[in-house]
Design goal:
single chain; globular; 12% strand; alpha/beta; Rossmann fold; five-stranded parallel sheet; 12 strands; three-stranded antiparallel sheet
Length: 320
């Protein structure tokens, strides 16, 4: 199978409120100040890179990775590094990344670029690592795109969700989880878990003094369809939502087994899924976003979503 993959991995500026200024004074001893974080490395896929094609900062940030990794200038790792005043920061996140790309270069990016092995950014003195990975290993992104763009048909959807009287034909549930057959995505999620655990263990081996935070996926997929805002059938949306929950549950299990702290970005982002209004949603189905002006990558967090991820990760870091 070709290594060339698009940036649709299991996407600008956000105004951060005063609530983000969480005190950075937590530690093992009550009243003691935590040691400052000096060396932070961010690892992950497109939902950690918060991929973007262009925003008010211009093209994607190429400071830490090739431009075709599509890193946002305001992704949650960069916001976190700035807030913590980190003196040494390396952002390895890249669109379409899998755990394999932690160990070896990610080649054949859309513009022909190559992102060095993400683990190469780790050192024995790294003291903070954030990790957001797993969706591409499980094939969730491709499945989600299979559900989009279906032709109209007279399929019943929940009242009030289909003002046109028609709904997409759908079919991705039948493709991945046919009645009476195996749920392929559920199997792929299970098969991805040991890969995530092994990656976390390798991070501890390479950076034994680091706090390692495993970050899940924010609440982009709603429980029910909202055709025509999002061209997905009710059956397929319900299936995608259930699959998304399985993915996040796997990420949480992997964090525990791999000795990482788990960061829940899902719960605090409920109510900001792709079916919400343009100024409310934290992820986009199409590329354009007004919740942080940008031309983004479809089916990915926008910059408001990145800011929400940042808040959740910062809260975990400052909890000590």
């Amino acid at each position: 199978m070709s290594r060339r993959r698009n940036l649709l991995g299991p996407l600008a500026l956000a105004t951060l409120t005063a609530a983000l200024a969480v005190p950075l004074t937590a530690g093992p001893t009550a009243g003691a100040e935590a040691a400052p974080i000096e060396e932070y490395v961010a690892l992950g896929d497109s939902w950690s890179a918060d991929v973007v094609l262009a925003d008010t900062n211009g093209p994607p940030d190429s400071t830490f990775a090739p431009v075709d990794c599509a890193q946002s200038h305001t992704n949650y790792p960069k916001l976190l590094a700035k807030e913590l005043g980190v003196t040494s920061f390396r952002d390895a996140t890249c669109g379409s990344a899998k755990t394999d790309d932690f160990y070896a270069p990610q080649e054949d990016l859309p513009l022909g670029g190559t992102n060095p092995a993400q683990f190469d950014r780790l050192t024995p003195t790294t003291d903070l690592v954030t990790v957001g990975i797993g969706g591409n290993d499980a094939g969730i992104a491709g499945a989600a795109m299979d559900c989009l763009g279906a032709l109209p048909d007279n399929e019943t959807v929940p009242p009030g969700t289909d003002p046109t009287g028609s709904a997409p034909t759908g079919g991705c549930k039948d493709k991945y989880a046919p009645e009476g057959g195996e749920d392929r995505l559920a199997r792929q999620i299970e098969q991805s878990e040991p890969k995530l655990v092994a990656a976390l263990q390798e991070i501890h081996r390479r950076s034994p003094e680091a706090r390692v935070l495993m970050v899940d996926y924010l609440a982009a997929v709603p429980e029910h369809a909202c055709y025509p805002m999002v061209p997905i059938s009710e059956e397929d949306m319900v299936y995608l939502h259930a699959t998304f929950l399985k993915l996040n549950a796997m990420v949480q299990r992997a964090a525990a087994a791999g000795g990482a702290e788990f960061v829940d970005t899902y719960t605090p982002t409920l109510g900001h899924d792709v079916c919400q209004g343009p100024t409310v949603r934290y992820a986009e189905v199409a590329g354009p976003s007004v919740n942080g002006p940008a031309a983004g990558v479809p089916a990915h967090p926008n910059s408001a979503g990145a800011a929400a991820q940042f808040r959740a990760v910062l809260a975990q870091v400052t909890a000590g």
